[in-house]
Amino acid sequence: MPKEISLADVKDLVGSEVGVSDWITVDQAMIDAFAKATLDDQFIHTDPERARNESPFGGTIAHGFLTLSLLSAMNYSALPKIREQTMGINYGFDKLHFVAPVKSGARIRGHFTLAEARFRGGAMLMNTYDVTVEIEDEKKPALTARWTTISQFNPEDRPEDV
């Protein structure tokens, strides 16, 4: 996949895997920082010894919402930049499922398939991705989701044939 594409190229990518992100290590420091930022310090996330002894996970796990929030970083490393885009906006998620826990120290990466791309108004392209976050050396993914984003662009850059 090229690192950069034009607005006119996007429609040809529907149905294709358009990117696989770099690996991200989800370590205890990241989990602790997320817990502090979100005020969610449940022991299964922040107390390694207690989580090892009292949880079914054998240690601490990342918050599901931490994994979800890392999709932005995965997006940046995986998806081709749309040349004409002036701004990207999160629109929302459908069918979001936290399938398997991400244990502290695990590496994860995102797989992005462009499910739909449609122009909206004169200066927006809505992109819908089927996303899977893989956990290295695990059979089940951390999460699956359908994610819609908006690529904002100048109206004069809109392709003629859409």
TrEMBL record:
InterPro entries: HotDog_dom_sf, MaoC-like_dom, NodN-like. Pfam families: MaoC_dehydratas. This is Nodulation protein N. Residues 13-116 form the MaoC-like domain.
